[in-house]
Every structure is written in structure tokens, then in C-alpha cells.
TrEMBL record:
PANTHER family: FERREDOXIN-TYPE PROTEIN NAPH
Domain 4Fe-4S ferredoxin-type: 252-280
Gene3D superfamilies: Alpha-helical ferredoxin, Immunoglobulins
TM stretches of this protein: 36-53, 82-102, 154-172, 178-202, 330-349
SUPFAM superfamilies, sorted: 4Fe-4S ferredoxins
Gene: ccoG
Identification of the protein by name: Cytochrome c oxidase accessory protein CcoG
InterPro entries cross-referenced by the UniProt entry: 4Fe4S_Fe-S-bd, 4Fe4S_Fe_S_CS, Cyt_c_oxidase_cbb3_FixG, Electron_Trans/Redox, FixG_C, Helical_ferredxn, Ig-like_fold
UniProt feature coiled coil, ranges: none
Pfam families on file: Fer4_18, Fer4_5, FixG_C
Keywords recorded for this protein, A-Z: 4Fe-4S, Electron transport, Iron, Iron-sulfur, Membrane, Metal-binding, Transmembrane, Transmembrane helix, Transport
Domain of life, source organism: Bacteria
Record flagged with keyword Transport: yes
Species of provenance: Pseudoalteromonas fenneropenaei
Amino acid sequence: MKFDIDKNSLIINPYHSEGHIYVREQKGYWQKIRRGLSWFLMILFIAIPWLNYQGQQAFLLDIGAQHFRVFGMTFLPQDLMILAWLFMAAAFALFFVTNWLGRVWCGFICPQTIWMLMFTWVEHRVEGTRNQRIKLDKADWSAEKLAKKSIKHGAWLVIAFLTATTFMTYFIPARNLYVELFAGTWSGLTWFWVGLFTLCTYGNAGWLREKMCTVACPYARFQSVMFDKDTKLVTYDAARGENRGPRKRKANSGELGLGDCVDCNLCVEVCPAGIDIRNGLQYECINCGLCIDACNDTMSKFAYAPGLIRFSSENSMIGKISRAANLKRVGYASLTLLTLGVMVVWLNLRMPIEVSVIRDRNALFRVDYTGLVENPYTLSIINKTQQPLHYQLSVQGVTIKEFKAPEQILIEAGEMSLVPVTIIAEPWELAHKVTEIEFVINAIEDPTISIVKSSYFYRN
């Protein structure tokens, strides 16, 4: 159990429990921003799988076919370097934002927070206010309690199931998934993954809640490394608030020897993590701003200035100028832009075709009864576009007697084809036993798609 210390009486009060946290519902400026962002991200999460591009789902991570479709581009396992650069850019961007605005990601954008507060909103609608929920949980089981608990958990499971189904549309074509759902033809594998993600969402947002942030998520543990004296955090102005204590609304706090904090504890009751921000910076704080809105409501009732709890840096709190840019922040921003730049360059240089030349190591060459030298090859050609294409093959670097290869090779979108090729040449026309050659592969429909692969021609 944790204890919050009343600085006036020095009495230790067991206010904060490690058990279930009953969050009071709160409205205000920062909650409007958070809810607006939550709605935007939720709509984006649902809508992206339904976007079409060139007659296909624009964003699809097809694990079975081992290709990832992102609008006009198809990425194969060989292209996963782009994923590494993307994760690096996201990490540096997160470090930059953390150094600037603290754990604003956790409080306003993190899916765990969005779903946790969504489940809490359902709890408010079904079981009532914070005090009503505490009373309900302490009451003996009755038909009313059973009904409310059943409705709440049923609603949570419905939201979790819809969340899991929506998540699966990123891996299975959305239209197929829902058609099969209503037709009752989902495979066992689909039911397994939807069921697993449903239970994870239900457990994380409904039961674990803030424990996912404080125990499971490593970000809370190392975030302080990225903080400095210019980082904006949810901060309690102790110089203005202390000594804290209750008083009547029209009472003169100066005569009572009290600061602006009326010790209403609303900042604790609205906190999803159940902490008291007045005790200073704590790793459990997710910078959601709920305590700021609650405190500002109280300040307005007592005709005090808002901002007793506010987003502020350490330098601002002690009257120093808070720098908008410092070495750490500029470094994180530079690394973010650098990795994004590398991604753009990589994408521009990336060819929508991949070719490998495979030699038969048991027979590098053959000599037929007429004395001609044959070299067999197998070309592995991957079409990385989202349209079927015809390809033509040619060879350079050697005088060819005969070139045994298909005139045109049709390869479907995102598919690989193995093409056997044989080159036949006169041995006296080859100056060396090993001659470097080049295979040229061109797409007939799109002349810009062309690639050259080197190999060798052997003779006796």
C-alpha cells in the first residue's frame, strides 16, 4: 500500500490503494483535446482497411502470401529493411516528443490509454459515478448488481470483439472477413486470432488498465532519461498551493495561512493511475491532463487563478526561461529527419522487381556432340508491383549461338516465377574460360521497370 502525506498535519493517510482504482469522470479543456484525438485515431484505425487503391485494399499485411501492400507498393520479406528504418524514425520521434512534452504520447495517443478510458466511459454509463461504483462493489450480490455487471462486461466484450475484428482486417481483406463472419465460414485460425485479440483487449483495457502502463510497458521506466529542465510535464505549483487545506469558498486563504490548494483530492480521484501529482513527478503519471482539468474546475469555484496544476517545465516553475530547443531535442529531431530521409531515398531507389540468377553447381557447363558449349541458368523473378506484368529476357557480354528462354514471361502481382534459361555459344568465340555476362530483364507494360543481373559463362 502507498501512503500520501498531509504536510499540514503530518498524518499518514492510506488514500491510494494498489487495488482497483475508481476513476472519477472529468471534463475540461485537455479532455476535449484528448477525446478529439481519440476519435480521430479510432476513425482512422477503422477506415484504413476499407480504403481501395487500383481496385485492391490499399493497406494489407498478407502474412500467408508473405507480402505487404501499401497503396501502390508491394513489400516482400526481402524489403523489411524499410520496417527497420520506420521503427527507428518512430523511436527518435517519440524521444523528441518526450523530451519536449513528456509522456504526452501515453496520455493522448497510446492505444492502451484510449481503450482504457473508453472502457471507463462505459463503466460510468452503466454503474454510475465514482461513489456509486464504490458502493455497488461493496454491496452484496443482488439482481440489480448482477444486471449492471453483466451489461458492463457484455459491452466490454462487444467492443473488444469489434476491435479484434477490425485489427484482423489489416491482415485479411476486410470485405472477405466480414462476408465470411456473417456467413459463418470463418476458419479455425481466424477464430483463434480474433478470440485471442478480443481477450487481450478485454483484459488490458477492462482489468489490467493502468498496470499495463506501470508494470508491463517499459516506456514508463526509461522515460525520465529523456527529460530535462525544459521538458513540459504535468506539474503541481507547490509554492502557490502549499500549505494545502480545506476552507470555505469566501474564506481568505492568507489569513488562514493556506495556499491555493483546497485539498479536495479531485486530482487523485480523476487520475487513471491513482497517483497524487502533488507529491511530485512519478513514473506512473501519463500526462493525460485529467488532474489539470479537475484542479482548474476547483480553482474557478473558489475564484482562484487556474494553473495550480499545469503543463510546465522545471525552469518555468522556478522563473527561468524555458528553451524551446536544446542539444538533446535538436539531436532527436535531426535523427528523426535523417532516418526519414534514408527511408525516402531507399523507396526511390527500390526497384519493383527482384531477380536472382541460380547456377547448377553440379554442371557449370555442358559440351554437346557438335562442340557447342551450353550454360544452364534458373532466373528467379519476383514481380513487386500490384499488377500482372510480362517480362522479356536478353543477355549481354557474350556472342550467342542460341538463347533458350521464353519470349515473354507473365508473372502475377506479388508472385515469384522460376525461369529456366540456357545459353549456347561457340567455344572459339570466347577469349577466356570464364566470361562475365549480364541478364537484362524488362517489363513490357512499363519500360521503366528494368534490371540487370550479372553472372558468368563457363567453357572448357
